């Protein structure tokens, strides 16, 4: 991973170039109000951004924001479906 966020709140990944990585460029597991914005991501082995959060039982939103990124040339390692943004 280029950037891995687990839990927490309000972390921002902004205006970065993330390239030639083994898995996802950014992985967000849980937490609230994390932002990935204005980044260029390419050459990742899997997808661009993997994001999860919120609570299905209570329908509580995580309020993560993935905005205005340029994500291209993915799945160098995985040959099956790996989206640019997986939620």
Q: What does this protein look like?
A:
The chain is 0% helix and 37% strand. The protein is an all-beta fold and 87 residues long. The protein has strands spanning 3-6, 12-14, 17-19, 26-29, 35-37, 40-42, 49-52, 65-67, 70-72, 85-86. The mean pLDDT is 92. A 4-stranded parallel sheet has the order 1-4-7-10, with no helix packed on it. A 3-stranded parallel sheet has the order 2-5-8, with no helix packed on it. A 3-stranded parallel sheet has the order 3-6-9, with no helix packed on it.
Keywords:
single chain; 87 residues; mainly beta; 4-stranded parallel β-sheet; 3-stranded parallel β-sheet; 10 strands; 37% strand
Mean pLDDT: 92
Supply the helix-strand structural class: mainly beta
Q: With helices defined by DSSP (H or I, 4 residues minimum), what is the helix count?
A: 0
Q: What composes the largest sheet? A: 4 strands, parallel
How many E strands?
10
| Helical residue percent band | under 10%
**CA-to-CA gap between the ends?**
16 Å
In the predicted model, the low-confidence regions spanning at least 5 consecutive residues are none
Q: What's the gist of this structure?
A:
The protein has strands at residues 3-6, 12-14, 17-19, 26-29, 35-37, 40-42, 49-52, 65-67, 70-72, 85-86. It is an all-beta fold.
Question: Secondary structure elements and their pairing?
Answer:
Layout: E1 3-6, E2 12-14, E3 17-19, E4 26-29, E5 35-37, E6 40-42, E7 49-52, E8 65-67, E9 70-72, E10 85-86
Parallel strand pairs: 1-4, 2-5, 3-6, 4-7, 5-8, 6-9, 7-10
């Amino acid at each position: 991973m280029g950037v891995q966020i687990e839990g927490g709140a309000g972390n921002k990944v902004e205006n970065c170039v993330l390239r030639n990585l083994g898995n996802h460029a950014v992985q967000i597991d849980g937490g609230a109000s994390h932002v990935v914005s204005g980044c260029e991501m390419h050459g990742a082995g899997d997808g661009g951004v993997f994001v999860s959060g919120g609570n299905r039982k209570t329908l509580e939103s995580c309020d993560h924001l993935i905005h205005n990124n340029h994500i291209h040339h993915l799945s160098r390692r995985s040959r099956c479906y790996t989206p640019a943004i997986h939620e």
